[in-house]
Amino acid sequence: HYDRINKKINEKFSNQFFNGEGIFVLSEAEKNNLKLSQKEMKLLKPSYETAEIMKYSTLSQNQHWIIYTDSSFKNPKSMDDYPNLKKHLDRFKEVITSDNKPYGLHRARDERFFTGDPRIIVLRKCAKEPIFSYVNFDCYVSATFYIIKTKRFDSKFLVGLLNSLLIRFWLKHRGKVQGNNYQIDKEPLMNIPLIKITKSNKPIADKIIALVDKILQAKEENPKANTQGLEKEIDALVYQLYHLTDEEIKTIEDGQ
User: Fold this and answer.
1) Could you give a GO molecular-function term held by this entry (predicted)?
2) What span, in angstroms and rounded, lies between the C-alpha atoms of 221 and 87?
3) Distance between CA atoms of 22 and 25, rounded to whole angstroms?
4) Cα 180 to the chain's mean position, in Å?
5) Other residues' Cβ atoms within 10 Å of the Cβ of residue 43
6) With contact defined as beta carbons under 8 Å apart, do 106 and 100 qualify?
7) Which of 22, 97, 199, 201 is the most buried (most CB within 10 A)?
8) Is the per-residue pLDDT at 46 higher than 80?
9) Residue of 84, 1, 76 lying closest to 43 (CA atoms)
10) What is the pTM of this model?
């Protein structure tokens, strides 16, 4: 199940394709070249990759599109109403190994994870630091990412907490680490000690949300904006939230 043609596959099929050519995931140019009808365009969803998903925020302008066909497209006749997409996927008939071939995506995830309410995208393997990204627009991602959608916490509060030094320290010592890389699997994610928001600590949570808003605004204006000062303020509020002592704070700050 390949999204694109890579060198190895191309060699296997006598180099009849271009390296990097999109199968289910298309660049803007590839999408335009297919001359799709309005009906066909409805099957294309905005696809996001590691380059666009950053700590705190995701670039709203996608560079790629995914042909989002679920298991109902296992039926070869299902593509009859989508002639240009059918012609495109037929070119890769021998390459597509999806469980739902010839036209269905391999293990298509439930679309409600990618749309609707604000959610947090988690990069499962991160170098240097964990990456939790707040998203409030349609954003389709591969299985390289987890998606957190919850009604228990405000998503902006949660993204501030998860990106904090305290939670990074916890993931480093209690989660999974390979060399310098964090492996953020379901188990460490589920075990992160989340604090309950009460009447007494709500003012701190609200301050975190306000700072996250400032970070998101800065990143929207300039994705490379330096928000370290704001992030440090969030770290300090998180220490307050968890009632850490100066000594504990020093251990965390020294352990980065």
Assistant:
1) endonuclease activity
2) 40
3) 5
4) 21
5) 18
6) yes
7) 22
8) yes
9) 84
10) 0.90
